[in-house]
Design brief:
The protein is an all-alpha fold and 188 residues long. It has 2 domains: 1-60, Homeodomain-like (Arc Repressor Mutant, subunit A); 62-188, Orthogonal Bundle (Tetracycline Repressor, domain 2). 69% of the residues lie in helices and 0% in strands. Helix 1 (3-21) crosses helix 2 (27-34), helix 5 (63-70) runs antiparallel to helix 6 and helix 6 (78-106) crosses helix 10.
Amino acid sequence: MAPEDRRSMIVRAVLPLVVEHGAAVTTSQIARAAGIGEGTIFRAFKDKDELIEACVVAALDPGESLEIIGEIPGDLPLEQRLQEAVEALVAHLHRIGAVMTAVHRERVRPEHLRGRAAKSGDSRRESMEAMRTAIVGLLRPDAANLRLPIEKAAALFLSLLFSMARPVPGGPSSAEVIDVFLHGAVSA
């Protein structure tokens, strides 16, 4: 297996352990979860900290959610396409929250990870841009029916969606967010 493939495989196997144990996860737990020997961990990663950081970077990467959104058939009704996109993006946000909470229970080093794995040095901006682009693609079959330019509509939808990341007591469900996005908050 190529070194980068091995690293990715280990990270995928370890992410649930990082959520459960944070940085306190042991190398024996990591080895068991990945189905490898402990020595293999240190051939793929300099140390456990580097592996934990790779898990954080993987959690922040929206790639899997964007792939799911890209596979949503354009001939589905817009409301259904949006619901599937919400499910994918909310799962991504929950994964970020779970990993960051678990890792930062023991230590706080967010500055150390800023710009990590980003072409421009701003991974958060790149991630948001990739999500906006995915939503633009999702909206494209209905672009003629949008009251806003498609780029602005996608940004508005993401703003509504991200408001769900820190829910307000009694706040909207995903179905209500989609309904407000599609039909507004005021009845005519």
